[in-house]
Write a structure and sequence with these properties.
By secondary structure, the chain is an alpha+beta fold. It has helices spanning 5-14, 20-38, 61-66, 111-121, 146-149, 201-216, 231-234, 251-266, 287-297, 344-355, 358-376, 415-422, 433-444, 494-512, and strands at residues 46-47, 51-57, 75-78, 90-94, 99-104, 124-125, 136-141, 166-173, 175-180, 185-190, 238-239, 246-247, 272-282, 302-307, 312-317, 320-325, 328-331, 334-339, 385-394, 398-408, 430-431, 454-459, 464-467, 472-476, 479-488. Helix 4 (111-121) packs antiparallel against helix 12 and helix 9 crosses helix 14 (494-512). The two termini are 40 Å apart. Residues 212-238 are annotated as: Disordered.
């Protein structure tokens, strides 16, 4: 291949018109949502009832989060690295939501309720002088929540493992602690919401004062424990090269699945498909302790801890999905990975190899094009643009190719409609998205759950931020489950793709088994 060929590919993908089939699929859904939104259009905008209290400089966020142990549905949006950029300036802690939406994959569609909540949130007037998240809606949209948006991607029920599988978990959080890493200052914000999304200042004050009492208490609340491993699960999956780690794939089977995807791409079924193997390990400590290790061994700007109830989500994700500030949307797809070695010269050499890789650049650019198409459904005409293409970003254990796509939301679009138009992120499906998801379901044969879904918030201040859940551990049934995968293209080499999954698993394994690091 000549040196100029990757750049010809870039020119091709970046000048394609939006995918009309994809647009029609999502536009029908958004038209359906308009009914729920119109039901709230006559409501007079109400001023959100904010009560705030300065907590001063906070040096130990782990201790602050620990003081919330024992509360329901604790949530920590943790900018564990990259504090110099907007995406890492703030961390947020919240718990004890006043409203809760959860659904399993066999329940009725939960998206309409989320749309209804989001329409009500959009009716609040707010001050611009606020942190991005002042409470509001926050939680988990698992990968399989897309099944309600596009039923053709649904797995057979026989693949669900005979247990309820989480389809959505969103709370109405009426208070949050915002930590500004640029100053080190923390602020408790209580907004007075109730389960019907009505605001009241006296309620905001009372809730805020109760949170202050909890933070100042020296009593130790019970933490999220590690339940004993379910013995029936010990035999599930296949042994791997790592002692104690099991996978839903035998190594050779994974290599064969990659080869099958390559054949299907060459036959014209897809351009790219993201394939993952799900690894698991017995849970050896509390979820809080594992998260502490994870944020130290593999810090990332989109890290998060979320206690759903019967499972806990722990992520050190470097990837943002959708960020909204003043109706402006940014998405930052990641495609292309090489390891960090600890040697600066070798790391620089590997970065140059990654930046010049025709396969990795093509993979990244295809997802950029897909995200442009998705944003075009809900953004103003001609506002969608690529502001960064295939840039190198370095993290604790890996280096990535990252691109940036931006756009301005139309005035009639809510955040939930933006999510519905773009979910799940193209960087963890492939392209075309729906065909890639069908292939993923057929080959992986089990739900991904939180992995490749998203955790984020829709704030009463009008902002939103959602990550993509890669580098993620789910603690469930006494085990830690941590899928790892990569994008397969026609240029992929099957054995190398298997090795890339273990490169991505390395940071998680350091946290899971610190004594072996």
């Amino acid at each position: 291949m000549c040196l100029g060929e990757p750049y010809l590919a870039e020119a091709f993908f970046l000048h394609q018109w939006p995918d009309i089939t994809r647009a029609n699929f999502r536009s029908e859904l958004i038209a359906m949502q308009q009914t729920a939104k119109n039901a709230h259009s006559a409501i007079n905008k109400q001023k959100i009832a904010l009560w705030t209290h300065s907590l001063g400089r906070v040096g130990d966020l782990e201790d602050l989060f620990g003081r919330l142990a024992g509360t329901k549905h604790r949530l920590w949006f943790d900018s564990a690295s990259d504090h110099e950029h907007d995406r890492g300036r703030y961390s947020f802690l919240a718990a004890d939501p006043v409203g809760w939406l959860d659904a399993s994959l066999t329940d009725p569609d939960p998206w309409p309720k989320l749309h209804n909540w989001c329409s009500q949130i959009a009716d609040f007037r707010h001050s611009a002088e606020l942190p991005p998240f002042c409470g509001g809606l926050a939680g988990l949209i698992p990968y399989e929540a897309a099944w309600w948006l596009e039923p053709t991607t649904r797995m057979p029920e026989s693949f669900l493992g005979g247990r309820p599988q989480l389809g959505m978990a969103i709370g109405i959080y009426d208070w949050t602690i915002a930590v500004d890493h640029s100053t080190g200052e923390a602020t408790l914000i209580s907004n007075g919401l109730d389960s019907s999304l009505n605001a009241d200042f006296e309620r905001a004050r009372r809730r805020g004062e109760n949170v202050l009492k909890r933070l100042s208490s020296t009593a130790q609340s019970p933490r999220t424990g590690a339940t004993p491993p379910n013995e029936n699960l010990e035999s599930i999956g296949h042994p791997t090269r790592e002692a104690g780690v099991r996978s839903n794939f035998e190594s050779q089977h994974y290599v064969e699945a990659v080869a099958e995807i390559i054949d299907r791409i060459r036959a014209g079924d897809s351009f790219q498909v993201n394939l993952a193997q799900t690894l698991s390990h017995p849970a050896m400590c509390e979820a809080d302790e594992l998260y502490r290790r994870l944020r130290q061994s593999n810090p990332a700007p989109y890290s998060v801890f979320f206690d759903v109830g019967n499972e806990q989500i722990l992520s050190s994700s470097p990837e943002g999905f959708l960020q909204v500030r003043d109706r402006h949307v940014v998405t930052r797809p990641i495609k292309g990975t090489v390891p960090r070695t600890g040697d600066e010269i070798e790391d620089e050499r590997l970065a140059q190899v990654l930046g010049g890789s025709a396969k990795d650049r093509a993979e990244n650019i295809m997802i950029v094009d897909l995200m442009r198409n998705d944003l075009s459904i809900v953004c103003k005409d001609d506002s969608v643009r690529v502001s960064g293409l295939c840039e190198i970003e370095r993290y604790q254990s890996v280096q990535h190719l990252v691109s940036t796509v931006e756009g301005d939301l139309r005035a009639d679009v809510t955040i939930s409609e933006l999510l519905a138009a773009c979910f799940p992120g193209g960087s963890i499906t492939g392209a075309p998205k729906i065909e890639a998801m069908k292939t993923i379901a057929r080959l992986e044969r089990q739900p991904r759950g939180a992995y490749c879904g998203s955790i984020g918030y829709i704030s009463v201040s009008g902002n939103a931020d959602f990550n993509i859940l890669i580098r993620t551990v789910t603690q469930r049934d006494g085990r830690w489950h941590f899928p790892v995968g990569g994008g397969i293209t026609a240029r992929s080499e099957p054995q190398s793709e298997l090795e890339e999954t273990w490169t991505k698993a390395a940071g998680l394994l350091r946290a899971i088994r610190p004594t072996e690091s």
